[in-house]
Design goal:
The chain is an alpha+beta fold and 141 residues long. The chain has helices spanning 2-26, 28-32, 131-140; strands at residues 37-41, 47-48, 54-59, 69-73, 86-87, 94-98, 105-114, 120-129. The strands form two sheets. The protein has a four-stranded antiparallel β-sheet, with no helix packed on it. A four-stranded mixed β-sheet has the order 2-8-7-4, with no helix packed on it. The longest helix has 25 residues, at 2-26. The radius of gyration is 25 Å and the shape is elongated. The chain starts with a helix and ends with a helix. 12% of the residues are buried. Mean pLDDT is 83; it is low at 134-138.
């Protein structure tokens, strides 16, 4: 009688972890899925000769427009525009921020987006607008 009880207890003890493990493996694409940045204009660490008119970021998943934020900061960490970020009308995986004319310097792009699957992506990167690149181009002409 005791053997039957022990076997029954062992089955219960191993059944629940096995079920959890199988369900986790079956749904790994959902467990690990989240939006990730796949392209940026201007690009990370780009050195530009002319100032961009906008910042555009592309993600691998659609973005919730109401929860997207994108800002460009100058070297003093102050925002260079009050313009609002928008999801690109032709691409729901892309956000755009229109920029005013900006001088040469180093800028930081900060973004936070919520993908439609509920995951938040929060990151930043830098790009530089250089006067020396412009001067060198003029010298070569």
């Amino acid at each position: 009688m005791r053997t039957k009880w022990t076997v029954s207890l062992l089955k219960r003890f191993f059944a629940l972890p096995m079920i959890i493990m199988i369900m986790t493996l079956v749904h790994t694409d959902q467990v690990f899925a989240h939006a990730s940045l796949v392209k940026a204009e201007p690009a990370r660490r780009a050195v530009l000769s002319t100032a961009p008119t906008q910042v555009r970021l592309w993600f691998n998943e659609e973005i919730e427009a109401a929860f997207a934020s994108l800002s460009v900061l100058d070297e003093d960490k102050k925002s260079i525009t009050d313009n609002k970020v928008a999801v690109h009308p032709e691409d729901p995986k892309s956000i755009v921020l229109e920029l005013p004319e900006i001088p040469a310097g180093r800028y930081t792009v900060k973004f936070r987006v919520l993908s439609v699957d509920g995951h938040v992506v929060d990151s930043e990167y830098n790009f530089t607008i250089s006067d020396t690149v412009k001067a060198k181009v003029k010298e070569d002409d």
